[in-house]
Every structure is written in C-alpha cells, then in structure tokens.
C-alpha cells in the first residue's frame, strides 16, 4: 500500500511533469472508483494543472480550482506515460486499469499523462472530483500530518493520553495520525524499540519522546530516499529500505535476531523480539498478549 513517503514522492513527481499543462481528459474505466458526480469528471477537461499536493495518503491535483483527489488504497498505483497519444480507448473490463488522465500534446506532439491501476479482486481505489479537498470524507477526518511542524512530542502525548488502543493500531488510524500504514508503523515501532501491542496510554514521557523521534525520522528518511525517483521505481525503493516489514524469517539488521510475524486486524505485522519485546515472541492471534 502506498503510504505517506510514496504519495509525497508521487506528488513531487507530478509537480515536475504535470503542473502548467492542460488536462485533455480523464477517462474512468472502473466506474466504482469514481465516488463523486458533481462536478462531473468531464469538467476537468480543458483545465490547467496548477498544483499537486498530499493529504495523508491522498494525492490532490488542483486543476484551476477544481480538485482531482486520488486514494490508491491497498493495491493501487500510478503509472506515468510520456506519450498516451497512441493509447487504445479505455473500456470497462476486468483488467487492472482504473482510470487514465491525458494531458494535452506538447510542441513535439507527445501527449503525456498517467494511468491508475489496481491489482487484486478487492477494488478500493477511489477518485473524487471536488471544489475543495475537505469535501472528501477521508480527507476531512484526517489526523495531524506527522511531518508538519505542529506535530511535536507534546502533540503526540495528547494523542496517546488516555487511549487504550494498542500502539500499532493507533499509528495506522488515519483519524489519529495521517499517512502511516501497515509497513511504516512496523518500521517506526522497530526504531522506537517498542512492542506493537503496547497500550498507548501506558507510554511514559520518555517512550513518547522516543516514539515521536522514530515517527519523524523514519518518515523523513523514507521521503528522502524516494525523492526524485520515477513513479515506477518507488515500490522497489520502499521495499529495499524496510528493516522489519515483510522480512519475517530474516535476521534483524540491528541485533541479528530472527524477525517474526503475527496476525493483526486485517493484515499481519512483523517485529524483532530482541529489539521490541524483551526477547519474548508474541502469540500469533488477534488481540494477542505476550506469551507467558
């Protein structure tokens, strides 16, 4: 799933290639992906892309004041094309293509743009055409951005205070903190040397400070690694930079212990017992506690 660092990089990638160009058309293939009807998606045709920004995991293309907001969900991706002039007309079907945005041809006759694709059978990729990004429910309900200056250790303390949620779930909750998903929550907790099942409200001031530092540094490092990369290279970069996520059975880069995996909610998490749980493995069941 694309998370904050990848979406931030995609936003930068599109700023360099799409801003200042005119939208020729947006072709929606997966009808269920389009979540709004007023304004119609056809209203984007003829408008100029004036900016690209990010709201948590949402990508926002500002087209003369009308916004195309994209959420790539778990299996969605953006594929840039230097020339879509020869692309076949899109037709609804069972393939991965969900939508295509075509930009007007340049002086050389090339018509660049991008395609939105989604793998798998669970189609959750979402498109919104709105006058204000806050009209998108998922954007309106976002918690603070962890890379914003206002996201301080004191701000995190207010978030965890009195919260009986396991810290892994809290980090993934977009209404609490925007942009962190399954992968980077694993990475953050490993960097903070914290059990994913620790209850948020039990954190000491020192642990909150360590967690805040781990959140900010982990995300900033990932953003820097992805900066300037082509969209097609972001997935490989993300995978290469992960220390624990999706590395079950491999040695921990910090201590050498074997990275383990347990079920969590609708997915799984990976962690290092030595670094995070005092050497004790977590029971592989939901709402697990440390084995005694």
UniProtKB/TrEMBL annotation:
Catalyzed reactions: Hydrolysis of DNA containing ring-opened 7-methylguanine residues, releasing 2,6-diamino-4-hydroxy-5-(N-methyl)formamidopyrimidine
UniProt cross-references to PROSITE patterns, sorted A to Z: FPG_CAT, ZF_FPG_2
Gene Ontology biological process terms from the UniProt entry: base-excision repair
Domain FPG-type per the UniProt entry, residue ranges: 243-277
Keywords assigned by UniProt, alphabetized: DNA damage, DNA repair, DNA-binding, Glycosidase, Hydrolase, Lyase, Metal-binding, Multifunctional enzyme, Zinc, Zinc-finger
GO molecular function: 8-oxo-7,8-dihydroguanine DNA N-glycosylase activity; damaged DNA binding; DNA-(apurinic or apyrimidinic site) endonuclease activity; lyase activity; zinc ion binding
Domain Formamidopyrimidine-DNA glycosylase catalytic per the UniProt entry, residue ranges: 2-93
Cofactor: Zn(2+)
Signal peptide: none
Keyword Protein biosynthesis in record: no
InterPro entries according to UniProt: FPG_cat, FPG_N, H2TH_FPG, Ribosomal_uS13-like_H2TH, Znf_DNA_glyclase/AP_lyase, Znf_FPG/IleRS
SMART domains to which the protein is assigned, alphabetical: Fapy_DNA_glyco (SM00898), H2TH (SM01232)
PANTHER family from the UniProt entry: FORMAMIDOPYRIMIDINE-DNA GLYCOSYLASE (PTHR22993:SF9)
Family, per entry: Belongs to the FPG family.
Protein name: Fpg/Nei family DNA glycosylase
Lineage: Bacteria, Bacillati, Actinomycetota, Actinomycetes, Streptosporangiales
